[in-house]
Amino acid sequence: HPMRAPDLKFCSRAEINFPKGPDVPYSCCPPRPDSLNNIPYYEPPPMTKLPARVRPAAHAVDEEYIAKYNLATSLMRDLDKDPTDPRGFKQQANVHCAYCNGAYLIDGKKLQVHQSWLFFPFHRWYLYFYERILGSLIECPTFALPYWNWDHPKGMRLPPMFDVPGSSIYDTRRNPHVRCGTIIDLGSFGEETKSTELQTMTNNLTHMYRQMITNAPCPLLFFGKPYPLGTDPSPGMGTIENIPHTPVHIWTGTVLGSKLENCDTSFGEDMGNFYSAGLDPVFYCHHGNVDRMWNEWKQIGGKRRDLIDKDWLDSEFFFYDENRTPWRVKVRDCLDSKKMGYDYAPMPTPWRNFKP
Ligand code: C2O
Fold first, then answer.
1. 96 CB under 6 A from ligand 1?
2. Whether the CB of 114 sits within 6 Å of ligand 1
3. Which positions hold the covalent cross-link 2'-(S-cysteinyl)-histidine (Cys-His) (predicted)?
4. pTM for this model (two decimals)
């Protein structure tokens, strides 16, 4: 059976270390809609009526784009003053927490959308509504999120626009090494490496080749293990969720166990923990590129296509849109990003020629 959308009647406290580790409670349930009964199914508007949202590479945007994006994010932060508004910046970050830190109980099991085949479709729908909310706040229906182009040497560092202290897309809870243009190691889960920048970039292209081509010749290897209704969470990750998706989170967040500004001890905030990742605006930029890899992978050929298992296609999530309307969405309605009204500005993919 397909995974059901969570019923908010069964949302309760989350756990910062879910699913393992000492239990540290956290609350992140969304505001309740007026009626919990029969939340309708969302279908993207027909193609002809769609504004074309083209997501740009984050390192290549102009000043005008940066200004719009900052304005939209600060307006979203302002909405946090009303804790019943599901469009607020913290509310949106809490969406990730609720789906990933065990707040929802479905069919007697705690939900976790990571480490399974729900990873790609969940994040696609999540960004879809987040992007629409940002666009509506600046009355720009074509506004599109940027993508962190870490699969290209020019994008293998924190995109500079996110490193402007005081701006609405800055986050103080990052590892200091993300500043000053340090090159990211896409294969590292926290261990330090002593390679030159050139070696790191070359290794990164090799990682990309492996995860997109060698290790992901068929759907389940790319998407992750089956996770039908009533089964245990975290059955197993797909190639890209493992590397580079997870290393980018760990590299950006604070060092585990270090002291945070407010004197708490770090659980990897913000990017390095599910419950807090959405509090760093670069999260949505990182996931833009993860989502772009889904499109790229299908273009490589062979058996690289979407899954056809109904338990996947009919799995559901729950989100609020830019008008605070609650919707249920299905995996089958997010397989083609163009049909959803957005696409990615093309960038070369040099990893395709990096056979190890
Ligand atoms: Cu939902 Cu990148 O984590």
1. yes
2. yes
3. 100-114
4. 0.97
